[in-house]
């Protein structure tokens, strides 16, 4: 399989260097001897530590700066600052402690970069085991030097760690002498420390070679008569050292190891085969090593009679169908050799399993560089860019080959590549599945439904990644493309996407190193979008719009591969010792794939053409034809000129069927989703809310959220007016959203599933309208993604909070912070473990004019001093996991940049926060009412087919509004024939219709004239909707009898929330007062 290069070491390594071959030859000639240069004999090699044996602080700093977005060069400049008397040098001489150094150093860095620099984190990285590791090439060299009888020493400028131990991450046993600056109190380039080292070695200066990466240190050594090597990179330094010493310091072929026990192959039969193949007579040994990558097809280095070869074979054991097709690799490389595509020179395919146990092929060993770390550490930004450009160019070359011209026209099927690939990888995944991975299940459903239309069929590599390319050692040119196992004829965009995997993986990802945590601009590496554009440009193609699909599929495929490796590790077939670890990463990668699926779903949705609402002819309520909507479909439309002020600007769309086609489609998609996923989930969600786990989010909700995202049913609430570029949401008008929101209101759980629930919606709107870019990046994005939740803290127990000017919580300035103190309650959502943000309202200036005293602060929920006292209940309901909390804020320090808009703007924000959000509750209340009425009708009418099934025990009883078990008869008459029941139904229908018209009218005026102009309409509907819903639900409860009060039906909860909204959305009286005030004003 294809992850040939899994588990490779992280640093840039010489892969197959021509120079190395010379060493091998020398080694075979047995040229072991003491070396003389200019008549003097070398008796010792003295190594500096940082920059020679381990990475230099400068190099570590450069990478750390990229990752932490610190201006490049800051650390190095601060290290040099002050020269001999600077903090760094004093630290090296142990004149100051680590704490003292970090204090001074931090101050210097902050002054230089004019921002706070977390130097502690740099220091931890510098001294971490991950970074402070001896270069393998140096370990090899030291072993060889000592084997020849020479002494070794380390002469280091180093320091004491906070634990009082000196920083020396080396095995002391490798050195005869260790001289440390912090122990001696002397630093290089002071000549005394070199003399001390020589003295301990018992040698004259001319008898030793000194290696250091810093010019002044090298110069000081040279002036004492020591031979020196200035180290720029360890590999080159070792070459120079070899030249001085006259013997090889390398032990073997890079990236190889002795053949693992389980992977041994018979040398004798192989040697015989090779002798025949190459036509050579040799009695010399066959040298065999195994490349340390090769998850899929074990790969070996062979040296026989001065020929350097590579053998690649199938793994032993039972194999997954169509995997490990080494024959195909051989065929395509042979064909491409003459087509201008750089490939290794293949020599022979041997399908006779008797030679090494399985079929294999042999190719020539290709010298060059393989970049194993895709962030290309140690290179200049322009060099990195050139490498990625060369990679893009070679890919274009592959995709430009005419398969027929090279005899590969039958190399794969023509067309329908992606559907076949999806089927293949689903099959591969299923064949190796060990447990259910939710994201994989979702992708298996999603991918076939979103297949792109394939534009072109070309040769595809199938595993096109940077570390499958051998580069020229001196210029950015690809010398060979390796690992063709997955090549075929297909959609070339798959290769482009696959070569961008690293862009989205973290640098710590153990299988394929990525760089999603690095600043690409600083590195000089093109972003994935640019890489796609570059490709399209080179190929003369229009830009690829649907590349998120290709990314989703590529990650899905990677996840399936990792799962295969894991499965084989369990069954003992995998060729890597780390395979088990690999499998555990499947879930991580599948989640990445799903993120792209979601992005693609949303892109398709956003590209639908939107039209303004149209005026349609008006009909009346019709009896339902729809299976799911038992109460009737509203096949009617508009009241033209809903508001006199906006008569000329379009009519009021009062029916979903009259919405513009894309929004109507969206409405029906939402309806289907409610029917297929939300209503059936209600019993389970309700049980979760009653269980001991209720204060943790329900996994089912999380799963439904992902499904809704993929359907583009996500963040529908943000009004077009607040988000005109549709950057954050679906860009619906208030009227359009009113129809959708009503539908969501029919289930208590639905709003959260579509990321359309309060108080997040109001908070997100606040951030969109008033947040700075930094505030948006920190808070808005996670909220929009549904990864975080939030709360809004205004109400206080000790004051009448319906009047926001009464709020007493204080916000006081203190240095670069605001300090808040206050007591709040009824804070919805604050108990949710996902709640990361509290939008806090308090007073910054109690002496300012009444409406300028309040301010709004963004308070991270993990700030010390936030003390949740208790969850409050609404008629006994806890509303877990978000709940409604009582909470104290005690000396909570919040950075000043968390203030929204500025001090004194809180009242204004609180008003704006509830812009369109001010009527979302009303829209949902219409949904509550419709469902209550539907349940009531179903209760009293003869059973539906579904209800009959339930009666027969075929289905679980559910919350579904059309389900009913038995026709109910009281006092000799079915309920449906009782006059009062009929009157209640009629009354409810009329009240719902009235309220809906008022909601839509308010939304319409907001759309056309703005929120301020709609003040009267908003106040009217807020006055009307909660009471109307309470009455309709109350009637339904009455018709249900005692069952209506139980939690078997959603009625009791609907009632509770409708009642609570008569406070939560502002008390009725306040809205009445507004209506009256405006009415009187209008009259006058
Ligand atoms: C379920 C629920 C969730 C909530 N979520 C949040 C939240 O997330 N964040 C938050 O900050 N708050 C929240 N609240 C609190 C809610 O916003 C307040 O309850 C509301 O603003 C009223 O404030 P109060 O309770 O202090 O009542 P008060 O202001 O004390 O009012 C009490 C009563 O006085 C009368 N009254 C008030 N004003 C007038 C007037 N102008 N004319 C005549 N009579 C009047 C009314 O009868 C009113 O009901 C929530 C409340 C509930 C029930």
Automatic annotation (TrEMBL):
Residues 288-502 form the Aminoglycoside phosphotransferase domain. Residues 665-787 form the Acyl-CoA dehydrogenase/oxidase N-terminal domain. Residues 963-1077 form the Acyl-CoA dehydrogenase/oxidase C-terminal domain. GO terms for cellular component: mitochondrion. Keywords: Acetylation, FAD, Flavoprotein, Oxidoreductase. Its cofactor is FAD. GO terms for molecular function: flavin adenine dinucleotide binding; oxidoreductase activity, acting on the CH-CH group of donors. Belongs to the acyl-CoA dehydrogenase family. This is Acyl-CoA dehydrogenase family member 10. It comes from Macaca mulatta. The gene is ACAD10.
């Amino acid at each position: 399989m294809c992850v040939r290069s899994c588990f490779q070491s992280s640093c840039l390594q010489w892969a197959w260097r021509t120079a190395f071959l010379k060493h091998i030859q020398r080694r075979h000639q047995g040229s072991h001897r003491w070396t003389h240069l200019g008549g003097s004999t070398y008796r010792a090699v003295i190594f500096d530590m940082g920059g020679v044996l381990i990475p230099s602080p400068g190099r570590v700093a450069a990478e750390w700066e990229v990752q932490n977005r610190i201006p490049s060069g800051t650390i190095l400049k601060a290290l040099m600052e002050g020269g001999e008397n600077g903090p760094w040098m004093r630290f090296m001489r142990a004149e100051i402690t680590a704490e003292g150094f970090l204090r001074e150093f931090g101050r210097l860095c902050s002054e230089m970069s004019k921002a706070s620099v977390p130097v502690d984190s740099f220091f931890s990285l510098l001294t971490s085991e991950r970074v402070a590791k001896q270069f393998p090439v140096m370990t090899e060299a030291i072993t060889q030097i000592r084997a020849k009888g020479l002494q070794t020493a380390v002469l280091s400028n180093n320091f004491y760690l906070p634990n009082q131990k000196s920083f020396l991450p080396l095995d002391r046993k490798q050195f005869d002498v260790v001289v440390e600056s912090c122990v001696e109190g002397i630093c290089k380039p002071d000549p005394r420390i070199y003399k001390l080292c020589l003295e301990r070695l018992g040698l004259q200066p001319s008898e030793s070679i000194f290696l250091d990466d810093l010019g002044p240190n090298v110069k000081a050594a040279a002036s004492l008569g020591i031979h020196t090597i200035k180290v720029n990179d360890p590999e080159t330094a070792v070459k120079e050292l070899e030249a001085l010493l006259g013997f090889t310091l390398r032990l073997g072929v890079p990236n190889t190891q002795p053949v693992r026990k389980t992977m041994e192959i018979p040398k004798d039969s192989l040697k015989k085969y090779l002798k025949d193949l190459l036509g050579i007579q040799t009695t010399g040994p066959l040298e065999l090593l195994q490349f340390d990558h090769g998850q899929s097809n074990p790969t070996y280095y062979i040296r026989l009679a001065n020929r350097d070869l590579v053998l690649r074979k199938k793994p032993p054991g039972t194999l997954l169908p169509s995997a490990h097709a080494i024959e195909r690799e051989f065929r395509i490389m042979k064909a491409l050799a003459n087509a201008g595509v750089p490939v290794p020179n293949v020599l022979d395919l041997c399908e006779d399993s008797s030679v090494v146990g399985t079929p294999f092929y042999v190719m020539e060993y290709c010298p060059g560089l393989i970049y194993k770390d895709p962030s290309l550490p140690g290179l200049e930004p322009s060099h990195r860019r050139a490498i990625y450009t060369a990679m893009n160019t070679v890919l274009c070359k592959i995709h430009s080959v005419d398969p027929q011209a090279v005899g590969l026209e039958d190399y794969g099927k023509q067309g329908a590549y992606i559907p076949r690939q999806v089927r293949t990888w689903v099959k591969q995944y299923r064949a190796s599945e060990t447990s259910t991975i939710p994201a994989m299940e979702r992708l298996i459903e999603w991918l076939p439904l979103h297949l792109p239309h394939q534009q072109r069929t070309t040769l595809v590599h199938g595993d096109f990644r940077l570390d499958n390319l051998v580069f020229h050692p001196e210029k950015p040119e690809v010398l060979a493309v390796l690992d063709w196992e997955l090549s075929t004829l297909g959609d070339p965009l798959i290769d482009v996407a696959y070569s961008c995997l690293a862009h989205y993986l973290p640098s710590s990802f153990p299988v394929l190193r990525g760089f999603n945590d690095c600043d690409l601009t600083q590195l000089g590496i093109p972003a994935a979008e640019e890489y796609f554009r570059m490709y399209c440009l080179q190929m003369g193609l229009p830009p690829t719009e649907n590349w998120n699909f290709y990314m989703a599929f590529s990650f899905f495929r990677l996840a399936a591969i990792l799962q295969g490796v894991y499965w084989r590790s369990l069954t003992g077939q995998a060729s890597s010792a780390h395979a088990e670890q690999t499998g555990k990463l499947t879930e991580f990668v599948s989640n990445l794939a799903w993120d792209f699926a979601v992005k693609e779903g949303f892109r398709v949705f956003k590209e639908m053409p939107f039209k303004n609402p149209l005026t349609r002819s008006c009909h009346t309520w019709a009896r339902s034809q729809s299976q799911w909507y038992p109460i009737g479909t509203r096949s009617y439309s508009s009241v033209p000129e809903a508001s006199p002020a906006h008569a000329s600007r379009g009519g009021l769309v009062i029916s979903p069927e009259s919405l513009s086609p894309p929004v109507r489609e969206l409405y029906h998609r939402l309806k289907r989703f409610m029917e297929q996923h939300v209503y059936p989930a209600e019993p389970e969600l309700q049980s979760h809310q009653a269980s001991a786990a209720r204060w943790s989010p329900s996994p089912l909700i999380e799963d439904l959220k992902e499904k809704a995202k993929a359907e583009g049913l996500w963040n529908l609430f943000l009004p077009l007016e607040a988000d005109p570029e549709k950057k954050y949401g679906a860009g619906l008008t208030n009227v359009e959203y009113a129809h959708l929101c009503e539908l969501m209101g029919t289930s208590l759980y639905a709003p959260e599933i579509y990321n359309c629930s309060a108080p997040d919606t109001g908070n997100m709107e606040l951030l969109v309208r008033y947040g700075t870019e930094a505030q948006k990046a920190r808070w808005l994005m996670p909220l929009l993604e549904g990864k975080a939740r939030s709360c809004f803290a205004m109400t206080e127990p000790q004051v009448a909070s319906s009047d926001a000017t009464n709020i007493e919580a204080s916000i006081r300035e203190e240095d670069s912070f605001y300090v808040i103190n206050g007591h709040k309650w009824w804070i919805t959502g604050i108990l949710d473990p996902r709640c990361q943000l509290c939008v806090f309202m308090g007073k910054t200036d109690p002496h300012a004019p009444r409406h300028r005293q309040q301010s709004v602060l963004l308070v991270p929920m993990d700030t010390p001093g936030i003390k949740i006292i208790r969850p409050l209940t609404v008629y006994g309901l806890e509303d877990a996991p978000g709940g409604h909390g009582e909470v104290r804020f005690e000396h909570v320090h919040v950075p000043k940049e968390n203030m929204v808009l500025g001090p004194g703007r809180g009242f204004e924000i609180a008003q704006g926060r509830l812009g369109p959000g001010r009527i979302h509750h009303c829209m949902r209340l219409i949904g509550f009412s419709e469902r209550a009425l539907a349940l009531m009708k179903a209760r009293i009418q003869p059973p539906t087919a579904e209800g009959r099934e339930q009666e027969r025990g075929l289905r679980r009883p559910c919350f579904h509004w059309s389900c009913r078990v038995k026709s109910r008869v009281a006092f000799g008459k079915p309920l449906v024939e009782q006059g009062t029941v009929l009157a209640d139904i009629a009354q409810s229908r009329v009240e719902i219709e009235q309220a809906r018209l008022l909601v839509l009218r308010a939304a319409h005026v907001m759309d056309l004239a703005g929120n301020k102009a709609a003040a009267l309409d908003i106040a009217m509907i807020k006055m009307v909707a909660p009471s109307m819903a309470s009455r309709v639900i109350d009637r339904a409860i009455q018709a249900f009898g005692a069952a209506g009060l139980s939690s078997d039906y959603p009625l009791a909860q609907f009632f509770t929330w409708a009642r609570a909204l008569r406070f939560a959305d502002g008390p009725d009286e306040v809205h009445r007062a507004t209506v009256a005030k405006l009415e009187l004003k209008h009259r006058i």
